[in-house]
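User: Look at the shape:
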Amino acid sequence: MFNCLQEDIRSVFERDPAARTSWEVLTCYPGLHAVVLHRAAHWLWSREFRWLGRFVSHLSRFLTGVEIHPGATIGRRFFIDHGMGVVIGETAVIGDDVTLYQGVTLGGTSWNKGKRHPTLEDGVVVGAGAMVLGPVTVGANAKVGSSAVVVKNVPSGTTAVGNPARIIDGEQAQRREEKAGQMGFSAYGLSANQDDPLAKAIHGLLDHAVDTDRRVEALIKRLESTGVSVEGELATADEFDPKYLGRIVDYSI
């Protein structure tokens, strides 16, 4: 238990630049308190002291604002940043080196017995306010964006964003999505079958951008065919791929 606590404290320093001293982490981090209390509750639960395990879990919820069912299985170096509002269901399975931010829900979608909560493999990061629902698997080192709603499996090493969650495919797509977010626009929240007028307007703008790109490319080819050299950024500009755009906007995981 003491070795696990040392690992937990070190993991806080690795993932939270605001952490200053071990004493501060040990006494002032509710996410750490919730993990420590869960280990006690899970130990009781797994030894058939079910009521006592639930009571420790309830006490932890009162003290930390984090609700973890004592039946949940959690690996090593699990870090809950800030913690308030995090909910983890009974049959959830969490691997090593997983990070959750505030307001995350690992919930169920069924009232039936059995596996009904998510599995998060090693190294997963789940952003603030995200929901991962049902017996889905988030693969190793995958990321779930803030406020995303995940109801299907997320492959290892990918990033899922939006509601319903969609995969941002590849590093280039992630860079473009980050840039779009800086500009105050993000395409992942839109799907082609929405009736929202704003969504339709944005799709129209994207279609216009595709057509404009096609025309510019045709003009460049015509100029080059007549012997005019096109140099600089105009010649080396990144190509616009409408199929790639479609995967960002419409491809559901």
The chain is about 45% helix and 15% strand.
